[in-house]
Amino acid sequence: MAISILFGGKSYEHEISIVSAISLGKIMKIEHFIFLDCEHQFYLIPQEKMKSSTFSSGEYKQCKKLTIKGRDFYHSSFLGDKALGVRKLLSVIHGGDGEDGIISSMLEFYSIPFIAPRTKACVVSFDKHLTKLYAKDRGVEVLPFELFEIANPPKSLGKYPSIIKPLRLGSSIGVSVIESENDLAYALDEAFEYDECILVEPFISGVKEYNLAGYRNLEGDFVFSIVEEPKKSDFLNFENKYLDFSRTEQVCKAQISQELENALREAFVKLYKNCFEGAIIRCDFFVIEDRVYLNEINPIPGSMANYLFPDFSKAIEEVMMPSPRMINIDYRYIGKIQRAKGKA
Amino acid sequence: MAISILFGGKSYEHEISIVSAISLGKIMKIEHFIFLDCEHQFYLIPQEKMKSSTFSSGEYKQCKKLTIKGRDFYHSSFLGDKALGVRKLLSVIHGGDGEDGIISSMLEFYSIPFIAPRTKACVVSFDKHLTKLYAKDRGVEVLPFELFEIANPPKSLGKYPSIIKPLRLGSSIGVSVIESENDLAYALDEAFEYDECILVEPFISGVKEYNLAGYRNLEGDFVFSIVEEPKKSDFLNFENKYLDFSRTEQVCKAQISQELENALREAFVKLYKNCFEGAIIRCDFFVIEDRVYLNEINPIPGSMANYLFPDFSKAIEEVMMPSPRMINIDYRYIGKIQRAKGKA
Predict the structure, then answer these.
(1) pLDDT tens, position by position, B199-230
(2) What's one GO MF term for it (chains A, B) (predicted)?
(3) Helices (H), B28-113
(4) Among residues A220, A317, B68, B89, which is most buried (max CB within 10 A)?
(5) Does the beta-carbon distance from A55 to B338 stay under 8 Å?
């Protein structure tokens, strides 16, 4: 079944989402490219226009406008609204609008079948503090952390190096590693530009990092990607990560023991099960003295981590689509009250 | 400023939401009543039709249909779509659609000013397990609990009496107190009808219960309702609670010490701050041996707990409306990549 892609969004990661959509268009057949601009207007972008200049120049505004309604996206015609015919939608809206649960809520509301984390899964993975509580509760270790609000920034940090992250952003935006107190003021300014709350963690230089993507398939079984040991120039800044997001080439499997691979998969399952169904996610782990720690959950990873799967189209085909709960309302209680009041 | 009300929703608490809306219409001026039916169609209900039979009979389907789009709700006319002119919207959609974050996400997306918890606050309070993690992390005590999935129901519970609750519902739907192992099978059936996951807590007969509602006002200060000691026939079943939701009469202040009132307020602030802004919520507490425990957060309480406020219209007027984050996208990174590739 052909897949449509939803991308863009009112988000600091808007441009990354465009790169993700372009990258996916290169490796698989996409039925529709649906762009959401920062004014929250949807547009249908023809395949041949799927290049970055279409968006940076504003040229996309000449494309067909779409509205979202029951079961589909629609464009206006002389004969009224015409359904686009979206059969399955993959959302690659990173950050705000996408990973914060807004778009998933809308797709759920309008009963459009979609691949992306559902609202709760978005909220749990978008807020790094909630992610820590969630992971610990599910028996997956995390690094220690401290939270600070913009009204009460830290005057100094106990330990260096440390890493400072805005509470609710991905893609390393606003993230800084600080080596000493001298770097603190600048790093705080940077992080607080993106969020009124920040999270501080110890930065462990040379720590082993492993990324693992996966999903549940139509049978409910877990399907895992290969494990990647991401290349890093100690710490990937936004620009490097940005280029990273346009990856379409398969990477090499990390050279790790079967035991460690199993431990990473086990942690993945603990995090995913009964929460992330319907999504293809990537979990980034640290391994310190043979123990696995969750770094972060990427509920909508850059270019969907396609480069970690031997056959990404198959993944799209077989990811489990949770069905919305059926609710039958019979007005039984209102009926009872009416009868009690003698109003039948 | 006049307020519009959004109610109904595809939810087990659909009927309760109708009762809430009718009750609020009795105590304050409502500009528009906007009903969401179980097919996810919005309708504009005239004031004189705001009675339960309009909904139970299906008569509401003859009312004007509305669609939600940028900044307002719209109805079709010969001259195209006409904006309704919603200035501030109070959502009283309890349970699914409302408290699960779906509607809040949509109102946020379409930039409609609204009073209700934002998406994250919904998710945190709708899922009783997440609520426990969240409250504990914020320094508010909760009762111990166990979780069970439908695939692995408990064969027996360690202690009796216990209380069984579906993980994600309000209004006592599917909740049972079980006195002995004999009651277990029936109670499990009941709870699993509404959710594939349940939560079991010790039931403490005769425990002191106190409810406190509140919000942050335009200045960012906390405004609290009176503290209520809810009447209870040991445990309110759905029908009693249902009648409870139509309350519009002021209740009496609980006879408690200033010290306890302060402790309840302190817990409320810990739970509300930096999460529930924009909403009027009610927190239900237990007090056991002078210690305060959170029972549950009602992010959209029945009839908005209007009966706890001396002047509920004032509350609606002065609740802080969080403004959406402004995001400026300058296509700087895409520009850089284009230049690097020599494509300007």
Answers:
(1) 999 998 889 999 999 999 999 999 999 999 98
(2) ATP binding
(3) 52-56, 102-109
(4) B68
(5) no
